[in-house]
Design brief:
5-stranded mixed β-sheet, 39% helix
């Protein structure tokens, strides 16, 4: 079993409707089981980030949304969920904003949790 750190997106997770939350937590269960071995269609690689190992979790959808969660495995191999959101009708714009926010959160995570000097 792989550890998952959900704190960075806890508020977002708490705000999900019941159907979406079910889909997200089902995908998180698979991530917990398979870790970095989980591949498409549930996990995809993120392009355009300064963090080369950034990935996106692609939970199932009820048709009203296109939920994505950007995450990285930290140095201890824990999946750190960085940004969650609905990219429906916002495709490229969502990624541009979400990737930058995920990068900021991951750098902060490393500094706080691992004492890494990232500057």
């Amino acid at each position: 079993m792989w550890q998952i750190e959900m704190e960075p997106i806890k508020d977002w997770l708490d705000g999900l409707d019941k159907q979406t939350a079910y889909q997200v937590y089902a995908a998180l269960d698979l991530l917990r089981e398979r870790g970095p071995n989980l591949k498409r269609p549930l996990v995809g690689k993120i392009e355009g980030s300064i963090i080369g190992s950034m990935k996106e979790l692609r939970p199932g959808s009820t048709g009203r949304s296109e939920v994505r969660i950007l995450f990285v495995f930290d140095p201890e191999r824990k999946a750190v969920l960085l940004v969650g959101g609905d990219k429906q009708n916002k495709w490229n714009k969502w990624y541009k904003t979400a990737i930058r926010e995920a990068e900021r959160r991951y750098i902060r995570w490393l500094e706080e949790q691992h004492g890494k000097d990232t500057k």
